[in-house]
Amino acid sequence: MEAAARRVASCDCGQETSCYGCLRTRRNEYHHDQLSRGATLEVLCSLRDPA
Ligand SMILES: [Zn+2]
Description:
With 51 residues, the chain is an all-alpha fold. The chain has one domain (2-48). 41% of the residues lie in helices and 0% in strands. It contains two helices and no strands. The longest helix is centred in the last third of the chain and has 12 residues, at 37-48. The relative contact order is 0.23. Bound molecules: zinc ion (ZN). Zinc ion (ZN) binds at residues 11, 13, 18-19, 21-22, 37.
């Protein structure tokens, strides 16, 4: 979880998208057009720090 958050936060692709360096894997390629780095960061942050 920590590593995932760090990787997503430090990637240099657009916040509205994702790349194979951060979010995209062969396993989730079905969802690639819905994967956005910004939204993922929000989810990861809310999981780490529940309101
Ligand atoms: Zn990326």
